[in-house]
Amino acid sequence: MKINQNTVLQGKKVTLVPYTSAHVSRYHEWMKSEELQRLTASEPLSLEQEYEMQRSWQEDADKCTFIVLDTERWSGHAGTEEDCMVGDVNLFLTDMEDPTVGEIEVMIAEPSCRGRGFGKETTLLMMFYGVTKLGITKFEAKVGQENEASISMFKKLHFKEVAVNRVFQEVTLKLDVNEQQRQWLLEQTNYVEEKKYSVLNLQTRASET
Predict the structure, then answer these.
(1) Which of 27, 45, 32, 147 is closest to 90 using CA atoms?
(2) CB neighbour list of residue 196: distance below 8 Å, 6 or more residues apart
(3) Residues whose CB is less than 8 angstroms from the CB of residue 181 and which lie 6 or more positions away in sequence, other chains included
(4) Pairing of strands 101-108, 85-92
(5) Structure letter (DSSP) for residue 46
(6) Distance from C-alpha of 103 to C-alpha of 197, rounded to nearest angstrom
(7) How far apart are CA 70 and CA 14, in angstroms?
(8) In the Cβ-directed half-sphere of 111, how many Cα atoms lie within 13 Å?
(9) Residue 67 neighbours by CB distance under 10 Å
(10) Rounded to an integer, what distance in angstroms lies between the CA atom of residue 118 and that of residue 87?
(11) pLDDT tens digit string along 86-102?
């Protein structure tokens, strides 16, 4: 999605940056994991196919993707952006008749970063962006039945379980963002800093010279 190509959302634990070609190699390595393939219901792709997918997602009007960085490492310049990657988050605008519906998908790929609140903050930041920038008022999440940690996380963020697909072994959770939920979300994310990706890249290059 072009709208977020120059957007950075910096939180306390995670920072969301646009998915660029510089991130593809690390992402490709993650997706060789059979565990991640199972948890995300994904098929392994070749490196060239991953680059094609990244280009497609950057242009598609119905997919908003951010790469998740470890804020502490990234803000402390402890390596490149690729070194600071911990996962990704997507928002799919799947209902052509209702553009206010967004399906959210979160992946914390680095095992050392799981169980530390990275997924929760990533989800909150993406929900914040969806509500304030994309006009989303209804969120949906589809999670594998075995992924109890993810199901529990969404429920803590006020999502309700609405369906179980036994064939695909998948749980569907939904959240309608009424005014009360919107205010709660804004309160939960009132510390988030929105920055320009192009400016941060210029600053990074300047500090390296």
Answers:
(1) 27
(2) 6, 7, 8
(3) 158, 175
(4) antiparallel
(5) -
(6) 25
(7) 5
(8) 3
(9) 23
(10) 9
(11) 999 999 998 889 999 99
Alpha helices in the chain (DSSP H): 24-30, 34-40, 47-59, 71-75, 118-133, 148-156, 179-188, 197-208
In 3-state terms, what secondary structure has residue 153?
A: helix
Cα-flanking dihedrals φ and ψ of residue 141, to 5°?
-135, 135
> What tens digit of pLDDT does each residue of 156-204 get?
999 999 999 999 889 999 999 999 999 999 999 999 999 999 887 755 6
**Whole-structure pTM value:** 0.91
Handedness of CA 169, 58, 62, 82 (dihedral sign): positive
CA distance linking residue 33 with residue 112, whole number of Å = 15
Cα–Cα distance for residue pair 122/87, rounded to 1 Å: 9
3-class DSSP assignment, residue 66: strand
Q: Tokens standing for 21?
A: 């070609």
